[in-house]
Amino acid sequence: MAQHLNKTHIEHALIAVFIQFLIWPFLGALAGGCFAAAVFLGREIAQHEYKLATSRGWVYGQPLPVKWHEGVTTGWSTDSVLDVLFPFMACTAFPFLLTRFDMASF
Fold first, then answer.
1. Distances from the Cα of 82 to the Cαs of 1, 34, 60, in angstroms?
2. Three-state SS across 47-83?
3. In this structure, are residues 16 and 37 in contact, taking their beta carbons and an 8 Å threshold?
4. pLDDT over 70 (residue 105)
């Protein structure tokens, strides 16, 4: 697995925790984490749809030749799974670390 890691996985986790930290005062740490992780999940799905569309000859201005489910069901590599998994893990660990050190409750 170490050969599949790159700096974007760590960057995505840090950005997700930053987003979670910004949303925390308004909605709480768990809701902020869910939102941040969903941003990266949506980003990866959109990238898969775009790559699939361009491989099918799509150009800007035309309807996408991609079915509604293909962004979720096709094109997932180890890299794209880790791009989503690292933010999910970071956003899950953050609230538990806060409560462990009595910094907040979620």
1. 10, 17, 29
2. HHHHHHHHHCCCCCCCCCCCCCCHHHHCCCCHHHHHH
3. yes
4. no
Residue 4 vs residues 51, 62, 98, 101: alpha-carbon distances, Å: 20, 35, 30, 32
- Assigned token pair, 59: 């150009």
Domain boundaries, the chain: 2-100
Angle at 41 between CA 101 and CA 14, to 5 degrees: 40
Residue 21 and residue 12: Cα distance in Å, rounded?
14
Give the pTM.
Answer: 0.84
Q: Which residue, 86, 95, 76, 68, is CA-closest to 5?
A: 86
User: How many percent of the chain have pLDDT more than 90?
Assistant: 70
Question: Distance between CA atoms of 35 and 10, rounded to whole angstroms?
Answer: 18
